[in-house]
Amino acid sequence: MSSVFENSNNRKVLGLGGRCHWCTEAVFKSLNGISNVRQGWIKSKFAHDTYSEAVVLEFDKSIIPAQVLLEIHLRTHSSTSQHKFRSKCRSAVYF
């Protein structure tokens, strides 16, 4: 996946905005191939973007590809327009 970048250890890094960052962290910490999960708040560099709760994953793409991580993210986070905390807990992918 070209939108995921490599860090200095030749591992991939991917940021995922979701609901509660502690809940999201727990989902991804349990997976083989994930070497680090940091949770907190994240936003893009655009001038009018706002922060959202998120995790930043470091992973080995030979064990778990980015496509699988995105599928897990979409299945474990309610990202519909009816989500009552959508502005705070929006589903997002940061690369």
Provide a brief overview of the structure.
The chain has helices spanning 21-29, 66-76, and strands at 5-6, 12-17, 34-42, 52-59, 92-94. The protein is an alpha+beta fold. It has one domain (5-94): Peptide methionine sulphoxide reductase MsrA (Peptide Methionine Sulfoxide Reductase, Chain A, 2-Layer Sandwich).
Features:
95 residues; alpha+beta; Peptide Methionine Sulfoxide Reductase, Chain A; 21% helix; globular
Structure commentary:
This protein is α+β, with helices and mostly antiparallel strands and 95 residues long. The chain has one domain: Peptide Methionine Sulfoxide Reductase, Chain A (2-Layer Sandwich), CATH 3.30.1060.10. It has two helices and five strands, in the order ββαββαβ. Strands 1, 2, 3, 4 and 5 form a five-stranded antiparallel sheet that branches. The chain is globular. The protein starts with a strand and ends with a strand. The mean pLDDT is 78.
What is the CATH superfamily? Peptide methionine sulphoxide reductase MsrA
CATH topology: Peptide Methionine Sulfoxide Reductase, Chain A
CATH top-level class: Alpha Beta
Alpha-carbon Rg, integer: 13 Å
State the domain count.
1
Order of helices and strands: EEHEEHE
